[in-house]
Amino acid sequence: MQRLFALLLVLVASGIAQASTTDRNKEASVDALFAELAAPGSPGAAVGIYRGGRVIFAKGYGLADLESGAPITPRTPFHVASMSKQFAAFAIALLAREGKVDLDADVRTYLPYFPDLGVKITTRQLIQHTSGLRDQMTLFMLGGRDIRDVLRQEQVIQMVKRQQALEFAPGTRFKYSNTGYTLLAEIVRSVTGKTLRQFTTERIFTPLGMKHTFFYDDVREVVPGRAHSYYREGDGPWLRYLLNLEMVGASNLTTTVEDLALWAGNFSKPRVGDAALIDQVSRGGTLNDGTPTHYGFGLFELPEFEPSVGGRRAIGHSGSDAMFLTYFVYYPEHDFAITILANTGIDLPKRIAAIADLYLPPNESPASTVPAIVAPPAFAQLEALVGTYLHPANRSVTLERKGDRLVGRERYSSEVFEVVFRADGSFDVGPRRRYSFRAVRAASGAVVALERVQVSGLPSDRFERVARVTSSAAELARLAGDYRSDELDITYTIGVENGRLVARSQWLVDPILLTQVTADHFDSDSFRPTLVSFVRDAKGQPTQLILDTVGVRLRRVTH
User: Fold this and answer.
1) What are phi and psi of 370, to 5 degrees?
2) I want to staple 323 with a disulfide (CB 3.0 to 4.6 A). Which of 229, 328, 364, 404 is the partner?
3) Are residues 220 and 194 in the same domain?
4) How many CB atoms lie within 10 A of CB 369?
5) Would you tell me how many other CB atoms lie within 10 Å of the CB of residue 215?
């Protein structure tokens, strides 16, 4: 009996040692994924890996504050950007279950100041990005605001009050809109009399024990030990990226990778809500015609929206603000979650997929829904695609030959990416396959357009092939003048400088340089607007200026 007992002890010890070795190997592999952040004086990331709501790995890489030299740890508070949306949506879900919010009622039920745009917009459509509301950050930038300014909740409300049109009819398209989530915070306030910070702290974070998690709604507040974000230009020094948001709901949650373990655990063993509520917030919505959007309550269904995180079924959300890059992914079949919170620009989806491969069984659907990459087609087929393609309410796409490769850019002045071809005849422009392109051919076989198809199966966009033009200085001068938007409360002055159109306003530090695509469409060198379009009357005189994908119209001012 003693020998048998001793043998059992040896076997148990051997198993523990083997498991310990395996764990150390996994941890070393995770360390290798973040080795680039080990350079002295570098910002970095915090990583949390959870199983069953328990932390199985938590570590920081790099510095939270380059001035003090404070390192990133699992307890470092991070601004998590749009990862915040799942918490704002969960707050609304709690109120809906209690009968205090009707998800399908008109939002004017709760926000009487919301403008009457002639159609019904529901709270559910705000949550699932199908409302048609223009994005608040785009509106700020088009209105001449520097996003490094202090941007406040009340400013979004005032912008919403001034809106005169939507991008599309509610429920007919999916388009990510931060505005909807800022309004969710206002619905919480309207219904409960509490700010989103107060409500979520009371109803979500305190019950879960998330002691270091809250919506940061006052830029003056001191948060000890929090991470700051950084970027660099080429090989230059690290620079601070300013973040002064007081808007909550769409963003501005502060949390740690340790606290997020408790949130991950609530998906399988709910302490806030119940299994039915978890199922509700985890499921993607649909458009009016039944098309799935793969976006639930602040959570994407993966990998439909981010194939690069791997093919395993999961839910999650990323975030990006002022060089804070974040990602939270939960794998329901394995009760397993990963979060990465970074304070500089690194590739998070690639690292999420690599960590999942380390800790989870082989991918249950390794092929996923993504067609395989194939070799580029023959020279003649590549040459047939070369050209410029324009979506009048979106932007231009230019495809060019570079040796035996095809490269593309989605704006005239943006970075050039190699075109990747797929087995189903589609191709991608850029490293993140959010959508793909297909050539549209005439009966003669000539390529006349590109159809941009969302990977998630959402409605496609058609980019017509156009011949780039270069207007004379006199022709450009006809477009010059002042263009006014009451919605944005801004006037743009269009002029001709050094043979090209330039846009200026009293709020812009630098002018916006415009590069001609067609006679009336111009790419810009600015992040917003990306495309400027002129509308002419029957005599060919410009009467309006349309900015960007959101379709804000500015009328030409006659003096």
Assistant:
1) -95, 120
2) 229
3) yes
4) 12
5) 26
Q: Please report where in the chains the tokens 């740690």 appear, as a residue.
A: 256
Q: What's the domain count of the chain? A: 3
Alpha carbons 381 and 390: distance in angstroms, whole number: 20
**Residue 50 falls inside a structural domain:** no
> Strand pairing partners for 57?
49
Shared domain check, 290 and 391: no
CA 238, distance to chain mean position in Å, is: 24
Q: Which of 96-110, 397-411, 493-507 has the lowest mean pLDDT?
A: 397-411
The two structure tokens encoding residue 97: 């279950």
pLDDT, tens digit (0-9, with 9 covering 90-100), for 443-475: 999 999 999 887 666 778 899 999 999 999 999
Residue 309 tokens, joined: 């995180």
Strand, helix or coil for residue 124? helix
- β-partners of residue 531 are 523
Beta strands, E only, 383-460: 387-390, 396-402, 405-409, 417-422, 427-429, 435-441, 447-454
Give the DSSP per-residue string, 169-212.
Answer: -TTS-----HHHHHHHHHHHHHHHSS-HHHHHIIIIIHHHT-TT
Distance CA 13, CA 444 (A): 73
- In the predicted model, is pLDDT for residue 396 greater than 70? yes
Quickly state the pLDDT bin for 144 (edges 50, 70, 90): confident
CA-to-CA distance for 505 and 547, rounded, in angstroms? 14
Do residues 183 and 256 share a domain?
A: yes
Residue 93 CA to residue 102 CA, distance in Å, equals: 10
Domain, as residue range, for 483: 473-557
What CATH number is associated with residue 184?
3.40.710.10
**Do 505 and 451 fall into the same domain?**
no
**How many Cβ atoms sit within 10 Å of the Cβ of residue 218?**
7
Burial (CB count <10 Å: 0-12, 13-18, 19+), residue 360: middle
| pLDDT value for 414 | 61
Contact 115, 479 (CB under 8 A): no
> Using CA atoms, how far apart are residues 289 and 138, in angstroms rounded to an integer?
28
Q: Are residues 258 and 298 in the same domain?
A: yes
DSSP structure class, residue 126:
H
Question: Which run of H or E residues covers position 352?
Answer: helix 348-359
Residue that is last in its domain, among 466, 497, 530: 466
> Between the CA atoms of 475, 479, 480 and 486, what dihedral angle is there, to the nearest 10 degrees?
180
pLDDT score, position 367 = 45
One-letter amino acid for residue 547 of the chain: L
62 inside domain: no
